[in-house]
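Exercise: predict the fold of this chain.
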Amino acid sequence: MSRVLVIGDGCKDIHIYGRCERLCPDAPVPVFVPNYEKQNLGMAGNVYQNVVSLGIPAILKTNNVIIEKKRYVEEKTNHMFLRVDSGEEKISRIKNLTKDIVSDFDVVIISDYNKGFLLEEDIRFICENHPSVFIDTKKIIGDYCKDCTYIKINKDEYEASKFFIQNSEWAIKKVITTLGAKGCRLENKIYPVEKVEIKDLCGAGDTFIAALCVNYLSSKNIDEAIEFANRCATQVVQKKGINIVNEIR
């Protein structure tokens, strides 16, 4: 069976659900009363869990230091009051990256949240030493990515890299841009999604890149892989918090 290596920045996503019924008497802020907490692996960890949930064996290589993203959310409305991040300042670069680390897998997914675990030169090294690499990055796109298979970014990340993408023959053909409720785009083709009630967008991009790779492993057809990834992402945005996709066809 195919095996996937997921490599990149990881974190712990924590959703603290509670209620807010009054304002603080000594400051004009809401009083949040927590009811319960939900924890998930986040960033590269969320990609990894989605790959496994879709039935493909995977290995996760990520930072040892725990980044935490705590979201305080009103339980009934799903309104987020506050997000508190910690641990990012302690992240160090990946160590001992060699050809052997990436060569034993059918596909490599780079989940780069630009926290410092992977530098551009690390991404270049992985792409040059593996024939099937999918990238999801918050870095500005550049020639360090040119040997990858495909790149997935969102519309804001596309705008940040727009000048390079539009002036690069290889990038135009390899950059998949997710467009939220409008679906996604590859070159000039739009792949629409079903209209659904969106409850939470957290983690949808991780689900998309995981599903894209899982499908492409078997189909080798990027149109089919994108359509499958759209369906998977549509499934998770209908749930509160960060959720792993259930196996779908």
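Check your answer against the key: The first helix runs from residue 44 to 53.
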